[in-house]
Amino acid sequence: MTVNDAVAKRVTDLLAKKEMTQYRLEQQSGIQHGHMQWIMSGKSRTVTLSTVMMLANDFGMSVVEFLNDDMFLYKNLDVE
């Protein structure tokens, strides 16, 4: 799993947990729709720390909380 895949999965899980739409997330976080689509579809090869910070903030959590999932363990990621 790539880092982008892990971020997309984490976003999907948090959207379901918070009963939130992707559109609402985009509007509140300031992430442009096209950029979010690239992340969620797996077309993006990289996700910047600033994007992760924006996502975490909109979910009401710190970056550490956002990344606090086993899918972000180094051994579980294909890191280039």
Topology:
Blueprint: H1 3-17, H2 22-29, H3 33-41, H4 49-58, H5 63-67
Principal-axes shape call: globular
- Low-pLDDT runs of 5+ residues are none
> Whole-number average pLDDT?
93
Strand content: under 5%
CATH superfamily: lambda repressor-like DNA-binding domains
CATH topology: 434 Repressor (Amino-terminal Domain)
Helix content bin: 55-70%
Structural class: mainly alpha
Note the run of SSEs as H and E. Answer: HHHHH
| Second rung of CATH, namely the architecture | Orthogonal Bundle
**Strand count, sense and closure of the main sheet?**
none
Task: State the total count of DSSP E strands.
Answer: 0
The total of helices stands at: 5
> Which CATH class applies here?
Mainly Alpha
Tell me the span between the first and last alpha carbons.
11 Å
Number of domains: 1
Report what the structure shows.
- This protein is mostly helical.
- It has one domain (3-71): Orthogonal Bundle (434 Repressor (Amino-terminal Domain)).
- The protein contains five helices and no strands.
- It has helices spanning 3-17, 22-29, 33-41, 49-58, 63-67.
- 15% of the residues are buried.
- The model has no long low-confidence stretch (mean pLDDT 93).
